[in-house]
Write a structure and sequence with these properties.
Layout lengths: L1 H26 L12 H12 L7 E2 L2 H8 L6 E8 L8 E7 L4 H17 L8 H5 L2 E5 L2 E6 L11 H21 L3
Antiparallel strand pairs: 1-2, 2-3, 3-5, 4-5
Helix pairs in contact: 2-6
Length: 183
């Protein structure tokens, strides 16, 4: 009697597990949504909300500026949201781009080259050096984001390592917000 009861419990557990697996497969919960279903506006909103009052970009990039700063020409992307700070002393930028089919690798390459140029920029205000070094390019499929974002450390923080860690932590907020839209 005890053996039969234990066998029934094992069989029931196997049936429940099989049903759960089937449910996951049927509902599509085993994979991230296609990037075609993701709206750039949703990514933009998630990033802005992650920073709250510390989101500084307040002016749209013009198409000519996209090409000049990032090398992005309209034949490389289907859709773009691009903002920068109106104040020239702030390096804050957010670029979210959906690459045209077959252009994602090229767009990512251009964004990383722009990132490298920003890091090597010798004309940067000292307050921006840590932020520039923390700049990130993130990608999910054909959607990418270039980010220089976040709060500035307190004025009394002069230790360079502390500033760099602070800047990296701030950028990570945007990276996490970007990635959260794809879950």
């Amino acid at each position: 009697f005890i053996i039969v009861k234990e066998e029934k419990e094992v069989i029931m557990k196997k049936i429940i597990v099989a049903q759960l697996v089937a449910l996951l497969v049927l509902t599509g919960c085993t994979s991230a949504p296609s990037t075609k279903d993701v709206k750039l506006e949703d990514i933009h909103t998630a990033i802005k909300e992650a920073y709250g009052e510390d989101y500084i970009p307040n002016m749209e990039f013009e198409a000519e500026f996209l090409e000049m700063e990032f090398g992005l020409t309209s034949d490389l992307y289907d859709e773009v949201i691009a903002e920068l700070s109106m104040m020239s002393m702030h390096v804050d930028r957010l670029l979210i781009v959906r690459a045209k089919e077959g252009s994602a690798d090229k767009v990512e390459e251009l964004l990383n080259e722009a990132r490298d140029r920003k890091i090597e920029d010798t004309f940067a205000y000292p307050m921006n050096i840590a932020r520039l070094n923390a700049t990130q390019v993130v990608r999910q499929g054909d959607i990418m984001a270039f980010m220089i974002l976040g709060a500035y450390p307190a004025d009394d923080v002069i230790d360079e390592e502390v500033q760099i860690k602070f800047a990296k932590d701030e950028i990570q907020k945007g990276v996490d917000a970007f990635n959260s839209v794809f879950k």
